[in-house]
Design goal:
about 140 residues, alpha+beta, Collagenase (Catalytic Domain), 6 helices, 3 strands, about 50% helix
């Protein structure tokens, strides 16, 4: 997912690590309450540590993402233009865009975020077969 980080505008030339943890609804709901103050599950939670890049040591975690696979399963089935692999990839892209400074708290910012998601996803889907990266789990 280095390419996704690069396309999102993260400093890929620096020596940092992206930590991506895949979780279920219960864990995500607990993390959403604990860290964000929201009730219920969500697709992705982003923790970015790029505010003080000068304090990084080589190999430090620059971005942590929590990705809810159960949400990806549901949304991939529900959306006609998506599937599980595309949803998981979208959540990673969304998290990396947040880490790169994008937000979606206002209507204009949300429009910009959605546009950037579409741009990054277009490149990724052209360069990679996402269904071979994120296999549909046996449920």
């Amino acid at each position: 997912m280095c390419r996704a980080a690069e396309l999102a505008g993260l400093p890929v030339q620096d020596d940092w690590v992206a930590s991506i943890r895949f979780v279920g609804d219960r864990t995500m709901a607990r993390c959403n309450a604990d860290y964000v103050g929201h009730q219920g599950t969500t697709d992705v939670i982003t923790f970015s540590y790029f505010d003080a890049p000068e304090s990084f040591f080589p190999g430090d975690i620059g971005v942590e993402l929590l990705i809810c696979l159960e949400v990806a399963l549901r949304e991939g089935e529900r959306r006609a233009d998506s599937d599980y692999a595309r949803e998981v990839t979208l959540y990673i892209v969304h998290g990396f865009l947040h880490a790169a400074g994008e937000d979606d708290l206002t209507v204009p910012a949300r429009r910009r975020m959605r546009r950037r998601e579409r741009e990054v996803m277009a490149v990724l889907t052209e360069e990679f077969d996402l269904s071979k990266i994120f296999l549909l789990p046996d449920v």
